Amino acid sequence: KITMQKRSSIQPRQTKASMLRQQGQQQGQQTSRPSSVAPSTPRPTATTGTTNKINSKAQASEGIRAFMATQRAVAAQRKKTIEKEDQEKTSRPRIRVMTGTNRYSNDDNDPFGMDTNKSNLKLETLIRQAKSSGKLNLSNRNLDRVPEEVLSMYHVDPNKIVVDFSSTDDAWYDSTELNKLIVAYNSITEIDERLGQEFGALTLLDFRNNQLENLPTSLSQLQHLTVLHLSHNQIQEFPEQIFKLGRLRDLDLSHNQLDVLPEAIERLSHLEILNLNDNQIKKVADSIGQLIKLRKLYLNQNQLVQLPQAYHLQNWKKLEELHLVKNQLRVLFVQDDSGRTIELPSLSRLDIRQNNLSQITEREQQTIASLPKLKELLISMNQLSQESIGLSQLLLKTPSVQTLDLSSNLFSEIPDAILTLEDLQRLDVSANHLRHLRNDLGKLEHLMVLTWEGNPLRSAPRNISMPELIESLRVKMVSDREEQEAHAEDDPDHQENPADLTTTVATKDTTQQQQRQEEQQQTTTLVRASGTLDLSRKQLSDIENNMLTGTPATLQLHHNVFETIPKEINDHSLASTLVTLNLDHNRIKTLSLTTKDATMVFKSLSRLSLSNNRITTLFTSFEEDALLVFPQLTELNVSMNALTSLPENLRDYLPRLRTLKANTNRIDKIIPQTLEGLEMIDLGNNDIGQLPPEIGRIGTIRELILYGNRFRIPRPTVLDQGTGAVLEFLRRRLGD
Question: Which PANTHER family does the entry link to (predicted)?
């Protein structure tokens, strides 16, 4: 009798599965009967402190035991087979089973490709990759011919093919036909005739930078070819084979030795890009105009004397870029007797630099070409002037031009037609014969870059940035317009131009509307810890009392629309504390140095800046009861205005003045008494024709800037030596 005891609470209960595992382990140790195993009873399980036997009827079925035994026998046999194969591998070399992609080589000494030469393997790798991608790049490999392996890369001997379906390699029937072949930067002198026969699916063929003199006749068989690059070779005649490539879209024959472009070029009806740069072409066939799909034409650095007559080019509706740099063109457009006008609606870039152009058309009053979408017009380094025939007509037909390069020509005046280019952003007039820059260039609202260096300007801009130069032109333009309007009002016979009147009214309405919007907004003032009140860039035309807070020493009012110095400043307590007043970039027209109104006197003001305004005169009164507006002023800046003269006795109205800056004005005469008592004087970029020697005797002058004026004495070499040299030169002229 077996006595059952209570199991320990910490020992898990034995399951049927665990009992089966124990039986399987016991049976696995019995190797005498692998195919059948007799049933056995499980051993009793011992518990802590007591040995008890446990009877169980749970056991594996006969089918399970037979299955497990069979699996163990198969595993043992597989292990023996693997060990035998390993021994055979070490005793003899492995013979490869070749598939369709691993083609037999043409080398009888190595029919199975067992040679491990690294260069051959690299070429074979490229060929293998090309068969899957369709692109083969053999650039920079020092080749003198196309390798034989490439020409025969698709050759297959049907008697030697061994097909292995278990191979992971691509089979010969999965190969991709070669469609791109690049053999650039080599030393190939001749292309094998088999090229066109073997690779009929090519769409791109690139033999740049080789030593080719001609092309194989089989090239004409490449009827799918769309891109052909043959630049930097030694081709002397235009290859006839190319004309048979009806689908060609991109042809590059630049840097060869071609001397003519034949009439047969019209057969390339799908051509979009034609590059013939750096050849010796003297004549272009008229039939080039039949390339109706042409988008880009490059004829730089050839020997062209003229282009085909204009009417031959009327089919270039899709032409976007025309490059004719460094030729010998004398006329751009050659017209026939019909006088027809052609339109190139898509042309955006016209580059005709470095030619012999002295005129655009052959006859006066001819309008040959209309270029409505032209963005870049580059005609530098020619012989054009403002009087060149056809130039104005060309500019009037290019309303969308954004970049205009007229540098290194013979212009003495900037053509009027330039002012019609409303979208112009960059204008280059450097290295011409210009004597001055037109103020009405300021009407070109989008102008950002104006290059003028290399001209004999009487008032050359110096020490100012490009935006400041353009802004000064606009200020002067407005001043000129106002003067003309004033003269027109005095002339009873003057009649307004309706277009100008409309423009003026529209401008005024826009300005007033903008001012009203700004006035409706809450104006915020900023009094800085340094004692500065900043009211700049707020489109202010007057000042309200609530805007003036505190007692700052500096008041910033620049970039507003003031037409006079605000009198509200003196109505506030600022009149007794204000030291610096900045009114740059406003619309002030007159600066009064005397007044009869005591409220307009700035008792403490020491520095006043009025640059970039519209000031034409410094008003003074000789009346006895006149008061000085700026009795304590020591520094005055009136640069970039429209002043034509300075008061003769300036120190009588500005008794403490030490620094005068009047750069970029129109001052044409200077009187020594005007500069008495001044220490720093800037009169550069004016129109001063003569420099009085008496200025050399003014002992207070410490710095004198006079560049950019008309006078020739002293010479620029003296001016470059500084103030001391200039004053010494003037004193020597007086005999001192």
Answer: PTHR48051, RAS SUPPRESSOR PROTEIN 1 (PTHR48051:SF1)
Per-residue pLDDT tens digits for 199-228: 999 999 999 999 999 999 999 999 999 999
Helix (H, G, I), strand (E, B) or coil at 426: strand
User: What is the 8-class DSSP label of residue 370?
Assistant: E
The residue type found at 573 is S
Q: What per-residue confidence (pLDDT) applies to 365?
A: 57
Residue with tokens 């106002």: 482
Spatial CB neighbours of 604, under 8 Å, sequence gap ≥ 6? 575, 576, 577, 578, 579, 632
In angstroms, the CA 647 to CA 656 distance is 15
d(CA 596, CA 623): 9
Task: Tell me phi and psi for residue 78, to 5 degrees.
Answer: -65, -40
pLDDT at 467 over 90: no
Per DSSP, the residues of 505-555 read HHHHHHHHHHHHHHHHSPPP-EE-TTSEEE--SS--SS--GGG--S--SEE
Q: Given this model, what pLDDT does residue 99 score?
A: 39
Q: Are strands 580-582 and 403-405 parallel, antiparallel or unpaired?
A: unpaired
Q: How big is the chain, counted in residues?
A: 736
| Distance, CA of 307 to CA of 301 (rounded, Å) | 14
CA distances 210 to 207, 250, 668, Å, are: 7, 19, 66
**Residue 668 contacts residue 690 (beta carbons within 8 Å):** no
CA–CA–CA angle 166, 168, 169 (5° rounding):
120
C-alpha span between 85 and 299 (Å, rounded): 71
Tokens of 214: 């001609």
Nearest-angstrom CA–CA distance, 414 and 53: 121
> Whole-structure pTM over 0.70, yes or no?
no
Q: Tell me: the pLDDT tens digits for 475-486?
A: 888 877 776 676
Q: Which residues contact 38 (CB under 8 A, 6 or more apart)?
A: none
Structure tokens at 235: 């081709």
